Amino acid sequence: MHRAHPIGGRLVTPFTTLLALLSLIALWVLAQRFVHGLGAVTHLNNGYPWGIWVVFDVVVVTGLACGGYVVAFSVYVANRFQYHPLVRPAMLASLLGYGLGGLGAVVDMGRYLNVYNLVLPGQMNFTSVMLEVALCVAIYILVLTVEASPAFLERFRLHRHQRKLERVMFVFIALGLVLPTMHQSSLGTLLVVLGNQIAPLWQSYELMPLLALLSAAIMGFSILLFEGFFSQLGFRRASEAPLLAAFARPVAWLLVVWLVVRFAELTLRGKLGYAFVPSGLAAAFWLETLLFALPLWVLLSPQRRRRAHLLLVAAVAMILAGAVYRVNAFLIAYATPEGYHYFPSATELSLTIGLVALKILVFIIVVKRFPIISAPARS
Amino acid sequence: MNRRDFLKGMAGGAGAVAAGGASSAEARPNREPAPEAVAMLFDSTLCVGCKACVTKCKTVNGMPPETRADETLPLWDSAPGLSAKTLNVIQAYTDGTAEVKDRETDGFAFVKRNCMHCVDPGCVSVCPVSAMTKDANNGIVFYDADACIGCRYCVYACPYDVPQFDYASSYGAISKCQFCNQQGVERLDHGLLPGCVEACPTGATLFGTREEMLAEARRRLALTPGSEYQYPRETLDAGLEVPSTVPAYYPKIYGEEQGGGTQVLHLSGVAFDKLGLPILPERSFASRSEGLLHTIYKGMFAPVALFAGVAWFARRNLQRQAQEHAGDPAEADSPRDDAHDDRG
Ligand code: SF4
Ligand code: SF4
Ligand code: SF4
Description:
The complex is a heterodimer of chains A (about 375) and B (about 350).
Chain A: H1 14-36, H2 38-41, H3 52-64, H4 67-77, H5 87-108, H6 129-148, H7 150-155, H8 159-189, H9 208-234, H10 241-245, H11 248-268, H12 280-293, H13 295-299, H14 308-332, H15 346-369
Helix pairs in contact in A: 1-15, 3-5, 3-14, 3-15, 4-5, 4-8, 4-9, 5-6, 5-15, 6-8, 8-9, 9-11, 9-14, 12-14
Chain B: H1 3-22, E1 38-43, H2 52-61, E2 89-94, E3 100-101, E4 107-113, H3 122-126, E5 132-134, E6 141-143, H4 153-157, E7 164-165, E8 174-175, H5 195-199, E9 205-209, H6 210-222, E10 228-231, E11 242-245, E12 264-267, H7 285-297, H8 301-324
Parallel strand pairs in B: 1-12, 3-4
Antiparallel strand pairs in B: 1-9, 2-4, 5-6, 7-8, 10-11
The structure holds iron/sulfur cluster (3 copies).
One iron/sulfur cluster (SF4) binds next to helix 3 of chain B.
C-alpha cells in the first residue's frame, strides 16, 4: 500500500508551538518594516543594497525549493515513477519555499505600492534580468499551486475535478520544468551586469546561468534527501533511504560537473591564483568548494551511500554548499565602496528565521491533515 | 528511458544554457552616444575644493543639508559622500603629507562625484519597470519615482555607486543627479546651466555637448605643461576665460571609453583609480548582460522548445503509467511495486 494518507496526530506540540512563536515574531517585524521603513529594521545601506532578505529569502530559499523541480524531472521526463511518492511532499515544500521567496521579495521592495508596474506592458523593461526573474517566479508559484492541488482535491473529495486536472496535468508539469530552468539560471545572469564589482572567483559572466542552474539542481536533490530523513524521524515513517539512495548517482554527477565547470572556468580565465592569495575571499571559496566536494566521498561509494546517516551528512553538506555559493556570489564577493559594512540586524534575522519557521509549520500541519506522504508507518 | 537518457536529458538542459552563454559575446554591442548628448567636463586640476557646486546642487534640487553627527544645528552641509540627501559631492584623494596638489605621492587631488550619465547605463538596463530611462536625444539618465518599485537593483549594479535609496523613510525613493533637468527643475530646458556648472568659480566643471567636451579635453591633454592656457568657464563660448598654468595631466580622458563611455568626463593630475573612479573595460557590462539574456531568450525559441519537449515526455510517460495501472483505479496515483529498487 503506497497511497498517500494524512499522517494525523496532534497539531499542537512543543515543536509546532516554537515554530508558531517564531512566526509571530516575524509578523511583528513585518509590521515594523511597513510602518517605519526598511532602515528601521534592517542594516541595509547604499553600499549593501541587497541583504539577507534578498540573498537568503529569495536567492537561497528558491534554490532550496527546487525539490519539486528535480522530482518532476526524474518522474515525468526520465520516467522513474518509483519516485512518485516524493511528488506530493516535494511539490508542497516547493510551493511553500517559493511562496516564502515571493513574500520576501515584496517585503524587501522599497516602493511596494508600485509593484503593479511589473505587469504594465508600457513599463516592463525586457532588458532587465530582474523582470524576467520576477514574472517567471510569480507564474511558477501559480503552477506549483496547481501541481500541489491534487492532495487537497482528494481530501475534499472533489474527484471529478481531480480527474479533469489530471488530464491536463502534463501541461503544468512541463511549465513547472521550464519556468525554474529559466529563472534559476537567471539568478546567475543577475550578476553579469555587475561586472568587476563581483570578485573574479565568482564573476564568471556567460557561465553564470549554467552555474546557477547546476546549483539549483544540486540544492533540489539535497533538500529531497534531507526532507526524506526529516519525515522519517519526525513522522515515524518507514525509511525512504533505499529510494533516496538511488538519487546518489545523478547528484554525484552534478557535483562532478559543478567542480569541473567551476575549476575549468577559473583556470582557463587565469583566475585560479586568487584562490591562493590569503584573504577572506579565498577562505570563502575553499569553504564552498569543500562543501561541494565532500559529499562525493559518500555518494561515489556504493556501501557508504546506503548508510542513512552518511547520506544525511552528504545532503546537509550540499544544502550548505549551494547556500554558501549563492551568498558568496551575491554578498561576500560584492565589492562595495569604503566605509560601508553589512551584517544583518536582529530584526532582519528574525524575519528570515520566522518565515522559514512558518514554512515548516504549514508543512507539518498540511501533512498531518492532508494526503501528502505515502511511506507506510514504521512498525 | 534508462539511466543514460536520464543523465543525457539533464546534461541537455544545462547544455542549452551553456550554449547560450558561449555564443552571446557579440549579441549586443555597446550603445552609441545620444545624438545631442549633453556633457560635463570635470578638470580635477582646476578644482579648489570650495564645494560651491555642492551647495548650489542642494538649492537647485531642494535637498536638505547633511550635517555631521556632532553638529546640533543644520547650518551648513558636510556631506561626506553621495546620499539620499546629496546628489553631488567633492571628495579628496590624499597621500602621505599631502603637500602638493595633483601629485600622487605626498600630494592631494579633488574629485567631483555625481551621476556619470553613462552612454550605456547599467541602471537603465537593470531596472525592471523602466523607472530609470535614458533620454534618446540628450542622453540624460532620468528617474521616475512613480514607477520605481524600490528593488535597489540599480544601486547594486551602478559601477559608480551613484543611485542612493532613502532607507530612513518609511517609503523611500532613489536619489541621483538628473543633470538639473528633471520635472520641476528643468534648468536645461529653460536655457540655464546645471547648478553645479553655474556655481563653479574656476571652470573646473564645464558644460557643453559630449563632442565639445571631448574636444576640449583632448586640447588640454595636448598642451605643454607649464604653459599658459585660457581656461573657459561655464561653457566653451560663454566668454568667461580664466588664464591658468597648464599642469601635468594624467594622459587619459576618463569616460571616453570606460565602461562604454560616460557623459561626465574627467581630467586629472593623478591616476583615476586614486580618485576612486573604477577602472572598467571598454565593453559595457550592460551590453554583456543584455547580450547573454537575449541569446538565451531569442524569440523565446529555447523556452518554447524546452516546453514542447518536456510536455511530450510527461504526457507519454503519464499515459504509459496509466495503461500499466488500467483497471486498477485505486492504484492510479501510486507507485509501482518496484518502488524501492535501486537501479538509479
Ligand atoms: S553612473 Fe550609475 S546611476 Fe548614473 S547613469 Fe551610470 S549606471 Fe546609471
Ligand atoms: S530601485 Fe527603482 S529605479 Fe532602481 S532598479 Fe529598482 S525599480 Fe528601478
Ligand atoms: S547637474 Fe544638477 S543635480 Fe547634477 S550634480 Fe550638478 S547641480 Fe547637482
